[in-house]
């Protein structure tokens, strides 16, 4: 398995897209920190940019990469290798390369400008989000043979997690404004890893007061060590479940 | 050695394999014959674990194929249409496979040498002609000295010289007592290679006989004539 992983990593790193993504993240990070005089404000702007760009790049790149590796996968499957190991290596290669790109492009500069718990949380969340969206991409890619459909599905999923989910939550909040939904919101936020990441970072920034009463409830839950621990656990579930489901599908797939 | 029992597979509504049962033992050289789309390639892909059958079992030296994977180290497979990572070079693909398989036994590079592939080691797989691709596939199939060779239309697309080289190689390996499974539409070239014939139609095996038995049964000395004779009898 280490050998397959080696070939996949080499292939991804040779791909110029990952390099371009790293440089792009670097450019954004330095620009944002250069524009704002306080690093706290810079971190806030960066947070929104990163939570928008990282899922998009990860899910689209990973989906396309898997479709383009169809021949490679076919070749490996006819060799004495376990399908599980082939799929795990693909996941490891993609998640590793994209997390590495994030750490180089955004992680190290953030830690350079803002060496605090908030900065550290941001890097951790960026890496987790990268891995989560690679797992979701693998599920999208294994679900259909048609490349156009698969990439379309990946874009839709990104739209859902980045835009539509928040819209839905707002809709529910306004429709049921008369009911005490604050506690429910904590549960609902677990349904979207991007929101989870955002809340965890915002709470570290101590701007939760801006979020009103719900913010207080959030702080009550996510602000504690137990809350943070559970949230990270939920995010790990967001990696584990899509990946295991995609692995199950891959094992039964005809090539 | 290879044992298929009641193998069935459907792609959507299309039933590609219909309760296929057959066994093939070491030292035999079996030809899979049948019209286009009768399920030959699907059967082969099932044996390699590339296609997962809907029902039935496949055993390879008593190892169940659906759960095992080690058995594939004993198989050399030459696909009908080779599909390789386009941005890799011939040499890289061969080195990678050698690295992944990691066999201690020396590699059988006969075909690489006689096809003159070393000169082309720096060519990208995406730029190869169909025939060169077939040469690469054939070389890879024989590279690891496998006990079983599964060749899907081995000579399709090869030039006369290359296909003669490949046939020589097949004969040489067959005489070493290896198990061969060959599909082909060019029956004349199977004549001096195969010992058994499997004739498939619409996903079912119509007959499974030795070449001798088939020839004496229909009273022909050439395989092509025998099959033609058989086909005209069944359709009539």
Number of helices of chain A: 11
Query: Fraction of residues of chain A in helices?
Result: over 70%
Quick one: biggest sheet of chain B?
Answer: 6 strands, mixed
Order of helices and strands of chain A: HHHHHHHHHHH
Q: Shape of chain A from CA axes?
A: globular
SSE arrangement:
The complex is a heterodimer of chains A (about 260) and B (about 240).
Chain A: H1 2-14, H2 16-35, H3 39-68, H4 70-77, H5 83-113, H6 117-143, H7 147-175, H8 182-189, H9 193-205, H10 212-222, H11 225-251
Helix pairs in contact in A: 1-5, 2-3, 2-5, 3-5, 3-6, 3-7, 3-9, 5-6, 5-11, 6-7, 6-9, 6-11, 8-10, 9-11
Chain B: E1 2-11, E2 14-24, E3 29-33, H1 40-47, E4 55-60, E5 63-64, E6 75-78, H2 90-101, H3 110-114, H4 130-143, E7 148-152, H5 160-175, E8 179-183, H6 187-190, E9 196-201, E10 204-210, H7 211-218, H8 223-235
Helix pairs in contact in B: 7-8
Structure overview:
The complex is a heterodimer of chains A (255) and B (236). Chain A is built from 11 helices and no strands. By secondary structure, chain A is mostly helical. Chain A has one domain (2-252). Chain B is built from 8 helices and 10 strands. Chain B is 34% helix and 26% strand. In chain B, strand 1 (2-11) and strand 2 form a beta hairpin. Chain B has a 6-stranded mixed beta sheet, sandwiched between helices. In chain B, strands 2-1-4-5 form a 4-stranded antiparallel beta sheet, with helices on one face. The interface between A and B is medium-sized, with 23 and 26 residues.
């Amino acid at each position: 398995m280490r050998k397959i992983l080696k070939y996949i990593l080499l292939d991804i790193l040779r791909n110029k897209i990952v390099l371009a993504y790293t440089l792009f993240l670097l450019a954004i990070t330095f620009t944002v920190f250069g524009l704002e005089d306080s690093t706290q404000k810079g971190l806030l702007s960066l947070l929104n940019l990163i939570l928008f760009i990282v899922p998009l790049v990860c899910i689209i790149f990973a989906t396309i990469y898997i479709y383009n590796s169809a021949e490679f996968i076919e070749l490996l499957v006819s060799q004495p290798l376990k399908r599980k190991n082939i799929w795990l290596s693909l996941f490891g290669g993609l998640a590793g390369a994209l997390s590495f790109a994030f750490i180089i492009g955004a992680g190290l500069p953030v830690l350079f400008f803002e060496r605090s718990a908030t900065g550290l949380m941001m890097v951790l969340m960026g890496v987790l989000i990268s891995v989560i969206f690679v797992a979701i991409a693998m599920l999208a890619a294994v679900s259909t043979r048609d490349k156009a459909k698969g990439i379309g599905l990946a874009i839709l999923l990104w739209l859902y997690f980045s835009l539509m989910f928040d819209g839905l939550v707002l809709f529910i909040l306004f429709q049921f404004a008369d009911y005490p939904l604050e506690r429910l919101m904590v549960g609902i936020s677990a349904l979207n890893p991007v929101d989870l990441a955002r809340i965890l970072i915002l709470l570290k920034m101590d701007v939760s007061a801006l979020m009103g009463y719900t913010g207080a409830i959030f702080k009550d839950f996510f602000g504690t060590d137990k809350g943070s621990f559970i949230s990270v656990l939920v995010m790990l579930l967001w990696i584990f479940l899509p990946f295991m489901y995609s692995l199950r599908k891959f094992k039964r797939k005809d090539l | 050695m290879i044992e298929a029992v009641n193998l069935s597979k459907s792609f959507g509504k299309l039933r590609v394999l219909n309760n296929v049962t057959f066994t093939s033992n070491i030292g035999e050289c079996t030809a899979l014959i049948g019209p286009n789309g009768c399920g030959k390639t699907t059967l082969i892909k099932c044996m390699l674990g590339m296609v997962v059958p809907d029902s039935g079992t496949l055993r390879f030296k008593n190892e169940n194929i659906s759960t095992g994977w080690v058995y594939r180290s004993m198989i050399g497979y030459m696909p009908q249409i080779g599909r390789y990572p386009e941005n890799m070079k011939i040499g890289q693909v061969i080195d990678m496979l050698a690295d992944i398989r990691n066999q201690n036994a020396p590699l059988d590079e006969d075909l690489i040498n006689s096809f003159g592939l070393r000169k082309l080691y720096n060519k990208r797989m995406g730029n190869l002609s169909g025939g060169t691709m077939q040469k690469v596939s054939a070389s890879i199939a024989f590279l690891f000295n496998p006990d079983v060779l599964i060749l899907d239309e081995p000579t399709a697309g090869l030039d006369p010289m290359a296909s003669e080289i490949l046939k020589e190689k097949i004969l040489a390996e067959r005489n070493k007592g290896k198990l061969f499974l060959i599909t082909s539409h060019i029956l004349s070239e199977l004549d001096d290679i195969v010992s058994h014939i499997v004739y498939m139609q619409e996903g079912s095996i119509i007959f499974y006989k030795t070449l001798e038995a088939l020839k004496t049964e229909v009273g022909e000395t050439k395989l092509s004539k025998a099959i033609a004779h058989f086909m005209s009898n069944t359709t009539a």
